[in-house]
Amino acid sequence: MADRRGEEMPRGSSTESRPVAEPPREKRQLSERMGAAFSGGGSTAGTASVARAAGGGRSPGSSSSSRPSTTRPRGTRRARLRLVHLDPWSVMKTSFLLSIAFGIVTVVAVAVVWSVLDAAGVWDSINSTVTDVVGGESAETFDVQNYVGTSRVLGFTMVVAVADVLLITAIATLSAFLYNLAAALLGGIDVTLAEDER
Description:
Layout (H helix, E strand, L loop, with lengths): L1 H7 L16 H15 L4 H11 L5 H7 L11 E6 L4 H32 L2 H13 L1 H5 L4 H4 L1 H37 L2 E6 L4
Antiparallel strand pairs: 1-2
Helix pairs in contact: 2-3, 5-9
């Protein structure tokens, strides 16, 4: 009876111990190297061997040198902006200063040109030519400088320069107001800025 009961016991109730799975070979090698490193007093050689074993047998610099360089050439950076508002006050100040500079340059240029013409004897040549062509006593008293003399021309140029200052300043300020109105309706002007490659 005992033999029959023993034969009829299920397979799952067997008390025989199963063999324990041995650790893989790589883990055993790693544990052996770590033990050798610690037993050697923490020497740098043992630590390096452990590090190489943990890293798969590769040195720390080999991974970085083996990887291909992924650095790409730097391209030109661009920024797209939109001009949607102009400050009328700043526009007026800037245009006023620029118009004053333009008026001064105009007066100086006219003075230099008239001085060169006077030094070259152009006015005397014109007077003699008119006297020869017209003749008579009235031609002898003719002087072109009475009409286009330096002082008269410079006075007229100053008046024109002052008028230009007023007109340029007013037109620029009005243009700023008109641009702001147009930008509010249409969105303004798109401007693309690029980085200098130098």
